[in-house]
Amino acid sequence: MITLIYGGSGSGKSAFAEDYVLNTHIINRFYLATMMSSDEESKNRIQRHRKLRDGKGFVTLEHGTDIVNAITEIESISTGEFSTYSNDESIVLLECMSNLVANEMFADGRMCSAGECADKILTDIKKLNECVTRLVVVTNNIFEDGKSYDEGTKEYMRSLGKINLKLREMAHETYEVVVGIGIKI
Hints:
The protein is α/β, with parallel strands linked by helices.
């Protein structure tokens, strides 16, 4: 089951998503972080996010690309011989789609097309969704400023837009977050 949570920058969507996960009965909680550390600012953001999650019962998995690789870790932790979990239900909070799209689209110094990027990510999302009880995906609304962009940015926006639309179709629930308030759509 997929829950989609979206909003603008600084809307409170990440905090809303964490609270959403914490308010479920599922104790196997995974935080699938997609931000890659490329400069001092991103390193500081990653550290800040780790501190905010500290003590909330999340197992953090970091995959800036190829999120499908998290499946093995999730299955190993949830059902492994050293597991402290009492059941095999699991919930994954994927934070966030905009980072994942940028990482996949511009991986290895190349730029793949919007369609190629979207298709790969959506295939990975479907596989991930099949192995967990619930998947919560956080994504950004970056489409309302009306500015003009270079072709690479437009291609990125096309890919994120395609993914967001498809995720909305796949989702059992969708929330738009505005000033920290989640509005179920």
